[in-house]
Specification:
Blueprint lengths: L13 E5 L5 E8 L3 E7 L2 E8 L2 E9 L3 E3 L3 H8 L11 E11 L4 E10 L2 E16 L4 E12 L18 E15 L1 H6 L1
């Protein structure tokens, strides 16, 4: 499916690579009904490709790169079969099916997210920053947010607290913030 856009000129030309170091793929989930447990995947990769007016965002995150501010035992539990099952599903992947950019710099992206070998359609909203020269290359940005029910991806683990409420909410918030740099090959041919 191609991009539908409400801007008069599509500002992206060619291919932009996600820069791993500053880009983030973070999640948060309510724990004990009182606070948000947060984690980040630091090893992210991907591209934003412009083909005329069509834009495609594709990317992935290595599950082993998960970082949480909790004991190592919790990180190990997240990597195990109860949650991400990193041994059998080492990567989280996304590919857009439609992108809409608006003059007010808002963005809407629809696509397919794959976790634990299960693919589901999702929609995310956020902001985009137009390409500009940064002295070390042509940079752009894309920040997206969505939420999902983790059961749709096979994350069924749950524990009841003494109060009777769930230890971990079924709803998970995802926040993606991407620094994109136009690839050198694109500059050479443009």
């Amino acid at each position: 499916m191609g991009m539908t856009t409400s801007i008069s000129t599509q500002p992206f030309i060619g291919t932009y690579a996600v820069q791993t170091a500053p880009s983030t793929f973070a999640f948060s989930v309510r724990h004990s009904g009182v606070f948000r447990f947060r984690g980040v995947f630091s090893d992210v990769s991907g591209t934003l490709t412009a083909d005329g007016d069509d834009l495609t965002l594709a990317g992935s995150a290595r599950v082993e790169s998960i970082s949480v501010r909790e004991p190592e035992a919790l990180r190990a539990h997240l990597l195990a079969a109860d949650f991400f099952d990193a041994e059998h599903h080492p990567e989280i992947a996304f590919r857009s099916t439609a992108m809409r950019l608006a003059d007010d710099r808002s963005a809407e992206v629809e696509g397919e997210l794959t976790m634990r070998g299960i693919t589901r359609r999702i929609r995310a909203w956020g902001q985009w920053a137009a390409p500009r020269d940064a002295g070390y290359g042509e940079v752009a940005g894309l920040e997206l947010h969505t939420s999902l029910d983790r059961r749709e991806f096979g994350f069924e683990w749950q524990s009841q607290l003494p109060s009777g409420c769930d230890a971990v909410s079924w709803e998970v918030e995802l926040d993606i913030d991407l620094l994109l740099i136009r690839t050198q090959e694109d500059h050479d041919v443009a």
